[in-house]
Amino acid sequence: MHRARHCLAPAALALVLAVPAALVAPAASAQSVRDLLQQRVPEALRPALALTVEDEIRAGQAAAANLLGVAPLVADEGLQRYVNTVGRWIAMGSERPDLPWRFGVVDSADVNAFAAPGGYVLITRGLYASLGDEAELAGVLGHEIAHVVERHHLDLMRKSLLLEMGVQSLQKQLEGDREALVRRLVGTGAEIFARRLDQGAEFQADRHGMVLAARAGYSPFGLPAVLQKIASVDRTDDRVTLLYRTHPAPDERLRQLEAAFGAGLDGLDRPDAGGKLHPLK
Amino acid sequence: MLVVALLLPLALAPRPAQAQAQSQAQAQAKSQPSPTPGTTTRDTELKARPVVDAPTLARLPAKSAVTIVERRGGWLGVVSGGKRGWVRLLHVSSRPVGASGPTVRELETAARVATGRAGSGNVAVTTGIRGLTPEQLRSAQADPSALDALERTAVEPAQASAYAAAHRLARRPLPYPPAPREARDAPR
Ligand SMILES: [Zn+2]
Question: Is 2.30.30.40 the CATH number for B2-115?
Fold first, then answer.
């Protein structure tokens, strides 16, 4: 659908990598960078520069496995199955219903949730414990599902790898061992989850998260309700440090949601919809 | 159990002494936050009931102080200027209550006791007690069995659909809204 976004022409890549030069040069060359970025990739290079869905899934699996190394799954199959049920139902209403969606609650007091490429979504016990009802869970999972659907973290991985390797060696890598490529995409440990996306991607995930929850039949207001709770936590508490590091402040996110939706969601409340939150042991 | 009892109120920010009572009341009143200070982010109306066409009790200018006592869908039950009413959820931001929440040290001690790690001499296992750091994430090593566990509890579309049907979750068509243009410049 947006293939061009995922496979840049080598010439454009070379210019991206030479950003400092482009920045000091006048507007004319900024324009030509843009032109090059919009150029279509030559047919012959496409297979080499594009990542397949299989690559995406394997990268997500590896990133998730690394995160689980530091924050293991909560040992409660009933809870895990419950979160998978709600998550799967929401993901089925997204633009990528056929990914192998996997959801999990991980054992950490950190207040957070993580999306890895390919459909891997993990929420911490700290965040789960602060949820008030299933619509709030739906809002949180909706935000993470939106990151996966929009390939936000995959794009971040790809950009990092380009900057690190340069075009030539990346091309060589792409022609060779795919497993090595996936390893390099994932990077060190679970570092991808400590990195910040651009703000626009987070605001988009918030908007789409509310819509995805509403499409699944929930009240769309679960996500902003959770953001309000997070805003009520002292931000020097180390359980929200990572969240503030990786996301815009919750009050700014609320403001963006209000600006995007206004009263447009009136009438979509469904107080009786959904089941009960599975209790934490 | 105790870990949960103490962690639960994190986002609700009560005093530690309230934590236990709160976790007991959790089943009945989970979606009701304990009173939290909030601020209106724009001009809005205090309504008599949580519906658009309810009578307006007061007009609240941006930055009005409110106390959030309840949530019902897209509406917050608040007290403002001595009046109890309802404002749109998206017109309110909350802020920390102050230093009254449990400290991280208290939580850590409680968690060790709860998991039987106190006095065991093994202080290496502290997962789940405090926030995650970038250093921790960078040094994370894959847990080879973890993906199997994740697979084991996966849910297929048919099961998810059955759950939805049993819980009045009806699919609704709804497009994504575009990014707002004015939000960046909105008054703070
Ligand atoms: Zn996010």
Answer: yes
